[in-house]
Amino acid sequence: IGNSFELTCPPKSNITMVTWKISPKIGSPCTLGYRADQNKTNRTTCSDSMDWKFRPDWDPALEIRQVGIAHEGNYTCEVVATEGNFHKTYHLTMLVPPRLTVYCDDHGNPVCEAVAGKPAAQISWALESNSTLQEEGYDNGTVTVLSKFLTYSTNVTNTTCIVSHPAGNQSKSIAC
């Protein structure tokens, strides 16, 4: 997220036409097109953050600048060349690592929060005990997961929260 990202087309010589068809999960589809016989490019409803990486007659790669969750979706490059028609499809999905917060609630119970991750993180505790779990989803597709370690039945003074996520695992200890 926030960086530039490049998607490539099948490399072919003698390209007649190239079309990028973009179908985001959220928002309307758009296209970028290039016709070699007219040396002309065309775009329909694509945001300024998406454009040709270089000149499409040299390299028909697509560059996405300032990548964000709104760029999730399907990207298909269709190439028409003298050897035939070729296409390549990408399914772009964002992984957003959650921010890990650990604190003690008003009753002295350890609380672990995995804030704004995508997909939702999994929370566990190093010590087996009862715990509660809450999830809150946001419009941008991220999810906050909150787990409370219930210490009423044990004399635990220090415990560790373990957050599992495809973008990386984290853990923090706390004494309440």
Give short descriptive properties of this protein.
Immunoglobulin-like, mainly beta, five-stranded antiparallel sheet, rod-shaped, 2 domains, four-stranded antiparallel sheet, 176 residues, single chain
* Percentage of residues assigned to helices: under 10%
Span between N and C termini? Answer: 35 Å
Average pLDDT rating:
89
* Total DSSP helices: 0
Sheet with most strands: strand arrangement: 4-3-2-7-8
What is the fold named in CATH at topology level of the largest domain? Answer: Immunoglobulin-like
Secondary-structure arrangement, i.e. CATH architecture of the largest domain: Sandwich
Q: What is the succession of H and E elements? A: EEEEEEEEEEEEEEE
CATH H level of the largest domain: which superfamily?
Answer: Immunoglobulins
- Give the biggest sheet: 5 strands, antiparallel
Query: How many β-strand stretches?
Result: 15
- Which oligomeric state applies? single chain
Count of discrete structural domains: 2
> In terms of structural class, how would the helical and strand content be classed?
mainly beta
Beta content: over 45%
Radius of gyration: 24 Å
What does this structure look like?
Helix content is 0%, strand content 53%. It folds into two domains: 5-92, Immunoglobulin-like (Sandwich); 99-174, Immunoglobulins (Immunoglobulin-like, Sandwich), CATH 2.60.40.10. The protein is built from no helices and 15 strands. By secondary structure, it is mainly beta. Strand 7 (73-81) and strand 8 (84-92) form a beta hairpin. The model has no long low-confidence stretch (mean pLDDT 89). The strands form four sheets. The chain has a five-stranded antiparallel sheet with strand order 4-3-2-7-8, with no helix packed on it. A four-stranded antiparallel sheet has the order 9-10-13-12, with no helix packed on it. Strands 1-6-5 form a three-stranded antiparallel sheet, with no helix packed on it. It is found in: Membrane. GO terms for molecular function: signaling receptor activity. One of its GO terms (cellular component) is external side of plasma membrane. It is a single-pass membrane protein.
